[in-house]
């Protein structure tokens, strides 16, 4: 197995694609805490979201190169088909146990698919594959918003679909680990750690409970995300104020066809993350 080097060098800058929406809305209560989504909100997501890789795995050239680098002899197409089959099998098993929107640990799926036992190689491959099918880059002004919230002592947390590599990008993109940036470790609700994915209410219920321990009521919390179903719907159900981030066409999900979203409106819509500060400071 060759030394696979530093994958950070493969990150390619991206710009958001305008959505054509206009910002609007006003918050009804003073904000004591901000909870963020990651993919499509704090991060530009090349495929639109962390869970969209199946629809965006057409980067054949880079994937063939990746397989060669990791000495994987099977055809890319065969392995990828088995990969998604294993995810579907794991989801079915977890749903049978009562988990409404299950989340898997991606490195465990790859271990089964590739029969790869070396933990470091497994982690390296998982990261490299994700960077091929879903390149990411910090959303404009994400770092500025985080810095301002920290300086103003606004409580910050995250509720997001994620994998083990997600928070590893924070030092690269924003200069420090989430806790050093001001995110409260008690308010980090990442799908791969909890076994539930959005839009399950489970992650949001956990957040409500933790916030209550800090004497923060749901109505004084704003949750910001780019997906009306995965973000705004469960956040609204939890009693949070909501901000739809409509700053990138790749990841904006209005879900107008979904019954749960037809009569649902966020409290505010913003197209630049910096405008969040107008509402919370």
SS elements, strand count:
9
Contiguous low-pLDDT stretches (5 residues minimum) are: 1-5
Instruction: Going across the biggest sheet, name each strand in turn.
Output: 1-9-8-7-2-5-6
Secondary-structure element series: EEEHHHHEHEHHEHHEHEEH
- The structural class is alpha/beta
Helix percentage:
25-40%
Question: Rg, please?
Answer: 19 Å
Tell me what portion of residues adopts beta-strand conformation.
Answer: 5-15%
Instruction: Give the integer mean of the pLDDT values.
Output: 93
Q: Report the principal-axis shape.
A: globular
State the CATH superfamily name of the largest domain.
HAD superfamily/HAD-like
CATH class of the largest domain: Alpha Beta
Can you walk me through this structure?
- There is one protein chain.
- The N and C termini lie far apart (52 Å).
- 38% of the residues lie in helices and 14% in strands.
- The protein is α/β, with parallel strands linked by helices and 281 residues long.
- The protein has eleven helices and nine strands.
- The protein has helices at residues 60-69, 76-95, 106-114, 119-133, 142-151, 169-174, 178-181, 191-194, 201-213, 228-237, 276-280, and strands at 24-25, 33-36, 43-45, 136-138, 155-160, 183-190, 221-225, 241-245, 268-270.
- Strands 1-9-8-7-2-5-6 form a seven-stranded mixed β-sheet, sandwiched between helices. It has a two-stranded antiparallel ribbon with strand order 3-4.
- The protein folds into two domains: 12-48 and 136-280, Rossmann fold (3-Layer(aba) Sandwich), CATH 3.40.50.1000; 51-133.
């Amino acid at each position: 197995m060759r030394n696979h080097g530093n994958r950070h060098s493969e990150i390619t800058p991206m710009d958001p694609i305008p959505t054509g929406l206009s910002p609007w809305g006003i918050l009804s209560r003073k904000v004591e805490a901000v909870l963020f989504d990651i993919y499509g909100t704090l991060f530009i997501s090349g495929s639109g979201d962390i869970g969209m890789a199946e629809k965006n795995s057409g980067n054949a050239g880079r994937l063939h190169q990746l397989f060669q680098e990791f000495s994987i002899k099977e055809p890319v197409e065969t392995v990828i088909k088995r990969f998604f089959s294993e995810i579907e099998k794991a989801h079915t098993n977890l749903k049978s146990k009562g988990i409404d929107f299950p989340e898997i640990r991606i490195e465990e799926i790859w271990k089964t698919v590739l029969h790869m036992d070396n933990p470091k190689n497994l982690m390296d491959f998982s990261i490299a594959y994700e960077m091929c099918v879903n390149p990411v880059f910090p959303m404009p002004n994400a770092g500025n918003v985080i810095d301002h919230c920290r300086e103003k002592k606004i409580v910050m947390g995250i509720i997001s679909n994620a994998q083990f590599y997600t928070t590893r990008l924070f030092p690269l993109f924003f200069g420090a680990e989430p806790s050093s940036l001001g995110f409260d470790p008690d308010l980090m609700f990442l799908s791969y750690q909890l076994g539930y994915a959005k839009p399950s209410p489970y992650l949001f219920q956990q957040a409500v409970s933790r916030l209550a321990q800090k004497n923060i009521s749901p109505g004084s919390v704003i949750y910001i995300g780019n997906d009306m179903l995965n973000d705004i719907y469960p956040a609204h159900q939890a009693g949070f104020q909501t901000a739809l981030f409509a700053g990138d066409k790749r990841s904006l999900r209005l879900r107008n066809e979904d019954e749960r979203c037809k009569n649902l409106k966020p409290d505010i819509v913003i197209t630049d993350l910096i405008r969040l500060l107008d509402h919370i400071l």
